[in-house]
Amino acid sequence: MSMLRRLILSLMLAGFASAAFAGNLPRIGSADRTIGDPRAPVTVVEYGSLACPHCAEWQMSNWYAFKEQYVDTGQVRFVFRDMLTEPVTEATQAAAIARCSAPEQYFEVLHTFYRWQSTARNFGPVSEWYDRAIAVSGRSREEINACVQDPATLAAIREAMTGGIAAGVTRTPTFFVNGKVVADGSLETLGAAIDEASGR
After folding, report:
1. In a domain, 191, yes or no
2. Are 169 and 19 in contact (CB under 8 A)?
């Protein structure tokens, strides 16, 4: 078993196979990937995995409506943080490719991974899944490969996972609205939490 796989599995076991410690949600930092006005009154954080079918379902069913209603109107700054799930190797590679993409393309890369996730899982090959994302990454393949192999990339993914586990994340996707976990990711639930956080 590779060092990478051991590391990721140890983090998964710490968070998903035992009662996680419900600590504070880590503050937004330079390593975070965000979309929306940094001055927005509400911050929504999603912990997700690019290999997670439930995350893909949320993305494909809700993302554009959510973005149009809340992000594009300046009400919400949205943050995506990695919380890797099985299959670990594929999830890690996808997370690294996304993290290595041009910042303005990050969420388009996420959407591409989610859009083609089921196809990659059921029909393969997984290399085509990666290629589709790299094609919209805003970086050359050489730039992506060099960045993926940079230890700092894995360290950033590991930091996101560690923070999520410490905050009590036990499933993907998990959403926080201004630091408070919400029961589910439906637009109704998220909308109610956003309204409450906005004082409406």
Report:
1. no
2. no
C-beta of residue 162 within 8 angstroms of C-beta of residue 21? no
For residue 51, give both structure tokens. 């290999």
CA distance 132 to 114: 11
Q: Is 65 exposed, middle or buried (0-12, 13-18, 19+ CB in 10 A)?
A: exposed
User: Strand 33-35 relative to strand 76-82: parallel, antiparallel, unpaired?
Assistant: antiparallel
pTM: 0.89
Helix or strand (DSSP H, E) at 174: strand 174-177
Does any domain span residue 7?
yes
How many structural domains are present in the chain? 1
Query: 127: domain range?
Result: 1-13+73-168
Is residue 30 one of the residues assigned to a domain?
no
Burial of 156 (C-beta count, 10 Å sphere; 0-12/13-18/19+): buried
58 lies in some domain: no
Average pLDDT over residues 139-160: 97
pLDDT tens readout for residues 97-140: 999 999 999 999 999 999 999 999 999 899 999 999 999 999 99
